[in-house]
Amino acid sequence: MKIPQISVFLENKAGRLAHITRVLRDAKVNILALSLADTSDFGILRLIVDNIEAAKEALAAESIVSMVNDVTAVEVDNRPGGLAAILDALEGCGVNVEYMYAFAEHRAKKAALIFRFDHPEIAIQRLEKMGVNVMSGGQIL
Question: Do 63 and 76 belong to one domain?
Fold first, then answer.
């Protein structure tokens, strides 16, 4: 199962992130998970949202360049070694993790890991074979 993720390139300057969050708020788009990585000149904001189309439209209306790509979300036990178990399941199948981020509520028994794989179909097959819950968009929402 693939989940759409929207990515936005940001200038690395004060107020840019706040502007994007206001644009999404005003469009009534809820941010479910995010990752922000930066360099000295720009950042990449990656978002899982509840309404990808509304997010794209709202950002475009503000001349904010974005792109959508698919990521894979998996459910993992919220305990030490949870991530290691997922990576162990992938070992030997030739899949590279391009990037990932996670979210969990500290009282929850489960967490979600968001992966961008170079070969998502292989990763999904392997994870499902190993009994890992590969989440659909509805499970994240």
Answer: no
Averaged confidence pLDDT in the chain: 90
pLDDT digits (tens, 9 = 90+) for 19-63: 999 999 999 999 999 999 877 788 899 999 999 999 999 999 999
The domain of 116 spans: 70-140
Point out the domain boundary residue: 14, 40, 69. 69
Per-position DSSP letters for the chain, written without gaps between them: --EEEEEEEEESSTTHHHHHHHHHHHTTPPEEEEEEEE-SSEEEEEEEES-HHHHHHHHHHTT--EEEEEEEEEEEESSTTHHHHHHHHHTTS---EEEEEEE--TT-SEEEEEEEESSHHHHHHHHHHTT--EEPHHHH-
What is the count of structural domains for the chain? 2
pTM of the model: 0.84
The owner of tokens 């978002």 is 47
